[in-house]
Structures are given as C-alpha cells and as structure tokens.
Amino acid sequence: MTATTTVVGSRGVATVRGWSAVVPPTVLVSFAVLLVVLLWSLLPGVLASQDPVNGVPADKLLGPSADHWFGTDHLGRDLFSRVVHGTASSVASALVAVTIGVVVGGAIGLVAGSAGGWADIVLARIVDVLLAIPSFLLAVVIVSWLGFETVNAAIATGVSAVAVFARVMRAEVIKTRRAVFVEASVLQGGSRTHVLLRHVLPNASRSLLALAVLQFGLSILVIAGLAFLGYGDPPPASDWGLLVSSGKDYPTAPWLVYAPALVVVATVLSVNRISRWLRRTD
C-alpha cells in the first residue's frame, strides 16, 4: 500500500510516492492475536496461574466462567491454563518446521536456480515429485517413521514444506540472475560465488518472507492435526491438537473442543492475513 505526498516548489508541483504508514484494521487485529499467542508461549505461568496438569476432581466438566475462562476438563483441570501452557510447544514446533523448510528448501532452490543444466533438471524433478504428494500425508508417513513425538511431528511438517520453498526460491533465483545489476557485477569481474551470495541470494530471499509467514500458520494447523491423530506427545501434554482430540470424547462439554479449536483457528487466520498483507506491500 502506498501513499502520495505532494511537494510544491518553485518549478511546479511534484508528487512523491512512498510506503503508507496506514495498516488495515484486520492486520492490526491479526498482529494483536499473534502478540497474545507470543506472550502465552513466553510467559505461561504468569498469564495462567492454575496448574495445567493437576486438577481438582470436584471441579470437573465445569463450563466457562469467571474462574475458568475456558471451563474445566474431566479431571478438573483449568482448560485455559492447559491451552496457554500448550502454546509454547505448538509455536516452537511450527518455528522448527518453517526453519527446516526455509533452510533446506531454500538451499535446494538456490542450487537448482544458479547451477542450471542437469542439476536444475534433477532437483526440479525431485521437487515436482514431492509437490505431487499431499503435504499432510507426507508428514504422517515421516512422523510414523521417526516416532510419535511433537518434535518429530515438527520435523515431518518441515520436510513436507521443503518442496514449496525450493520451487519459490528456484524461480526467484532464475529471475534475479537476469537482472541488470547482477550482469553488471559479473562484467566487473565478480566471482560466481560472490555474485551468488552478495547479489542473488539476498534479493531472491525476500519473496520467502511472506511464504514463511504463511507456512508458519499452515505448520500450526498440520502439527495440531498430527497431535489430534495421536502422532504428538501423549497426555498430560497440552498441545492444541491433543486438547481437541481429548475433548471430543465428552459431547456434553463442547467447550473442551471449541475453546482450543478457536485458538488454533484464530492463530492460523491471523497468520494468513498478515501473509497476504506482506505480499501486497512487497
């Protein structure tokens, strides 16, 4: 989004276009949601003082109230505390997944786009094969091989995202290699490695930012789905997907499902909104 500034001088009127400081209200709300999620992950004991593991049997299956914002579960544990304490695991797992996708996928795309020839053909075909496999199915296969833990679910999610980052990085590298400033650097005697690391990589990597933000939200969703199916840490862990899975066994207490599910939905939608905004302002 850009803003227009009018400057009046002795030779007439000039119009200067620059980045607008105005941010859409929906983006501000999305940032606020992510800020809350970040604070939950960093300060769970401060923001949710009740014990997320040991409950009070007399308080089991209580509905949402002033004392228990999200209600309590079948063991009398405060659901809000469990959601807050499970945020760190969900967010950290998503960050691990995105990091794997960016580093490995970016490296593959960089090599394929800069090398060309047979290297590009072989790597591009490998990426096409990975893209043909549904990412969630690939994540399930990988986590089944690695073992049922949240960290393994994060690794599996990251591996399933490698192909997407590789494809975007390869396209950006090929486009950047043809830029005038890159050709000028080559004509001035810059080595292949210097041109690649100094000019091609920084400019080609900018497009990965919006994709990384989008993939962060998708990773939260995939990891929650894996935890829902039992591929994450076992109870008494409080991963968001595990909370939804545990709550579905108590139809008379619907808050056990919709409270953590709404947190997941709000987080993913906020990340997606920010990602779209970043793409438009790029």
What is the overall number of helices?
11
Largest sheet: 2 strands, antiparallel
Number of strands: 2
Assess the beta-strand content as a share of residues: 5-15%
> How do the SSEs run, as a string of H and E?
EEHHHHHHHHHHH
What spatial order of strands do you see in the largest sheet?
A: 1-2
Distance between the termini: 9 Å
- Structural class, judged by helices and strands? mainly alpha
**Average pLDDT figure:** 83
Helix content: 55-70%
Gyration radius from CA atoms, angstroms: 24 Å
Low-confidence stretches: 1-20
Global outline:
elongated
Keywords:
two-stranded antiparallel ribbon, single chain, disordered N terminus, mainly alpha, 69% helix, 282 residues
Describe the structure.
The protein has 282 residues and is mainly alpha-helical. The chain contains eleven helices and two strands. It has helices spanning 25-42, 44-47, 79-115, 117-132, 135-146, 150-177, 180-187, 192-205, 207-228, 240-247, 255-281; strands spanning 2-9, 12-19. It has a two-stranded antiparallel sheet. Helix 1 crosses helix 11 and helix 3 (79-115) runs antiparallel to helix 4. The termini are close together. The model is unreliable at 1-20 (pLDDT under 50).
What's the quick description here?
This protein has 282 residues and is mainly alpha-helical. It contains 11 helices and 2 strands; from the N terminus they run ββααααααααααα.
